[in-house]
């Protein structure tokens, strides 16, 4: 990664964390970075493209650290512990940015990102399978699909919890606790005599595939969201009128872009409408400011 590209990513992450994705303009990013807009567009086609590259940057940093763990002389249990600690530690470094992403759901879904998400899922699934089989042996093979789903769910739930904790968290203690709960689950499953719910071969079917992640946004989806928000703000005449005009304009066979842009400017400070604004801009290919 080139030095200027890394500078833009660092500055953007800082501003997104402080102000939010939608509230941060490309102009603010380039001003903070001390570069021109032309220099920005040499590396990133848009603000959405920049956000995707930030997540790719996270992915490669995390993968490098995990590969380093694999080279160490560790027992299977120690390796899984270090894996969990590594993930939680990396997440904690970018807590404010990830909270912004959780709050705004700003991540644009496209084929490139969908492939990355699927790749991360496959890598995580394979690592969990090998780790659990190494720790507990072939006896758990019939339940490996269910155990992976459970471990993934436990990790994700604690990840969301850690994001909003102000106190310092002992990630080794957390990872040890999670593995002890896996011990309990394995013991219980082996004693139960029950059949597995999800065979490993079917595991991927329970997660979003690329074609689902990249499905085209339709006008009816935008109109449905507008009507839903209108119900929430029926008490606010000005906001209701803005949404009403927006709905009517988007319903037209040939929507007038200046009218849509004007209505979006009326909504810019209404946090509940940020995801809707983002989708409308994407649908009509409106440029970031």
Output the number of helix runs.
14
Judging from the principal axes of the Cα atoms, what is the shape?
Answer: globular
What structural class should be given to the helix and strand makeup? mainly alpha
Q: pLDDT below 50 for ≥5 consecutive residues: which ranges? A: 208-214
Second rung of CATH, namely the architecture of the largest domain: Orthogonal Bundle
Count of β-strands: 0
Following the backbone from N to C, one meets helices and strands in this order, namely HHHHHHHHHHHHHH
N-to-C CA distance: 26 Å
- Mean pLDDT equals 87
Largest sheet: none
The CATH topology of the largest domain comes to Tetracycline Repressor, domain 2
Helix percent reads over 70%
Radius of gyration: 23 Å
Percent strand: under 5%
The CATH class of the largest domain is identified as Mainly Alpha
Give the tally of structural domains: 3
List the topology elements.
Elements lengths: L2 H17 L6 H8 L3 H7 L3 H25 L4 H18 L1 H10 L6 H26 L7 H20 L7 H22 L17 H4 L5 H14 L4 H15 L5 H11 L6 H10 L6
Helix pairs in contact: 1-2, 1-6, 4-5, 5-7, 5-8, 5-9, 7-8, 8-9, 11-12, 11-14, 12-13
What can you tell me about this protein's structure?
Pfam families: TetR_N (PF00440). Residues 2-62 form the HTH tetR-type domain. It is a single chain. The chain has 289 residues and is mostly helical. The chain has 3 domains: 1-44, Arc Repressor Mutant, subunit A (Orthogonal Bundle); 53-213, Tetracycline Repressor, domain 2, CATH 1.10.357; 219-283. The protein has 14 helices and no strands.
Give a quick summary of the entry.
Helix content is about 70%, strand content about 0%. The protein is mainly alpha-helical. The longest helix is centred in the middle third of the chain and has 26 residues.
């Amino acid at each position: 990664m080139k030095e200027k590209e890394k500078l833009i990513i660092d500055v953007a992450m800082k501003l997104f964390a402080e102000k939010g994705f939608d509230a941060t303009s490309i102009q603010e990013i380039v001003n903070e970075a001390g570069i021109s807009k032309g220099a920005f567009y040499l590396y990133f086609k848009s603000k959405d493209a920049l956000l995707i590259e930030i997540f790719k940057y996270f992915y490669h940093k995390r993968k490098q650290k995990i590969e380093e763990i694999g080279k160490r002389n560790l027992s299977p249990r120690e390796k899984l512990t270090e894996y969990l600690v590594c993930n939680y530690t990396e997440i904690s470094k970018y807590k404010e940015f990830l909270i912004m992403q959780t709050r705004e759901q700003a991540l644009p879904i496209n084929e490139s990102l969908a492939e990355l998400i699927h790749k991360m899922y496959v890598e995580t699934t394979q690592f969990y399978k090998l780790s659990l089989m190494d720790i507990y042996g072939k006896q758990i093979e019939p339940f490996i699909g269910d155990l992976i789903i459970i471990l993934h769910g436990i990790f994700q739930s604690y990840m969301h919890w850690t994001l909003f904790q102000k106190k310092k968290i002992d990630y080794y203690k957390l990872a040890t606790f999670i593995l002890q709960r896996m011990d309990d689950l394995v013991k219980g499953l082996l004693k139960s005599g029950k059949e597995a719910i999800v065979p490993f071969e079917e595991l991927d079917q329970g997660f979003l595939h690329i074609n689902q992640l990249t499905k085209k946004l339709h006008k009816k989806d935008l109109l449905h969201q507008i009507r839903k928000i209108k119900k929430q703000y029926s008490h606010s005449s000005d906001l209701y009128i803005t949404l009403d005009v927006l709905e009517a304009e988007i319903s037209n066979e040939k929507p007038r872009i200046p009218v849509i842009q004007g209505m979006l400017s009326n909504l810019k400070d209404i946090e509940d409408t940020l995801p809707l604004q983002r989708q409308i801009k994407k649908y009509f290919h409106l440029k970031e400011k």
